[in-house]
Amino acid sequence: MKHRVLLTLVYSSGLRVSEAVQLKLQDVDPERGTIHIRQAKGRKDRYTLLSRTAYQLLEQYIRKERPGKWLFPGGTEGRPLTTRSVQHVFEKARQKAEIRKPATVHTLRHSFATHLLEAGTDIRYFKSC
Questions:
Q1: What are 112-116's contacts with CB under 8 Å, separation 24+?
Q2: What domains sit in the chain, N to C, each tagged with a CATH number?
Q3: pTM (2 decimals)?
């Protein structure tokens, strides 16, 4: 479930894999529908979207797994999941889904932007995401 939630957030919020693995519970604000990304690219903080659907899935994961410091803990105590682990999980999911086109976790970030544009969202609205 952890991997499904993580990949869902990457796609639905346009996260970089490095941002997703660094998330903490306090970074998620369901009332405002946002995720606070701390020290993103360029060492800048930013906010991105949190969909209701993604939050509902996240909420189930939190109730079931009760993560500690990191929203997505890794195999080493007190450390988050590694970006390499996420890339490996994504590759396995891509193969299981029999997707033959080349794709990476970062492809999900591009898909987020593409789908917002296709839905008619003004690019200025999510350019900072």
A1: 112/11, 112/12, 112/13, 112/14, 113/14
A2: 2-126 (1.10.443.10)
A3: 0.80
